[in-house]
């Protein structure tokens, strides 16, 4: 199973980035796709999540109104549009996938660095 993330980089405060994660090689039904992030010295935290079927989304309070998560079902892709970026958004961003076949299985991407700095 592969989760390939892209779109990270260096951006000035107030700028925007769009992260993409393509999932491949898995079997079963996608239950949830999410983005997490981990800043230096901090625990990994949930940024945004989207649940399959009803496509229900939820966001961390710190990113509500600035970030948008969306899924392209045909391509097993999850996107994270990040606007009005702040220095506090600096972190490694990880893609997460939960699949149901016989049981739940979780997968993680390798992470992509997002740095917000002037």
List the helices and strands and how they pair.
Blueprint: E1 2-6, E2 9-11, E3 17-24, E4 29-38, E5 45-51, E6 56-59, E7 67-72, E8 77-82, E9 91-100, E10 104-108, E11 112-116
Parallel strand pairs: 2-11
Antiparallel strand pairs: 1-3, 3-8, 4-5, 4-9, 5-6, 7-8, 9-10, 9-11
The number of helical elements comes to 0
- Basic shape: globular
How big a fraction of the residues is strand? Answer: over 45%
How many strand segments?
A: 11
Summing up helix and strand content along with how strands pair, one would put the structural category as mainly beta
Mean pLDDT: 95
How much helical structure, as a percent, in the residues?
A: under 10%
Low-confidence stretches: none
What letter string, H or E per element, gives the SSE order?
EEEEEEEEEEE
The biggest sheet amounts to:
7 strands, mixed
Amino-to-carboxy terminus distance: 37 Å
Radius of gyration: 14 Å
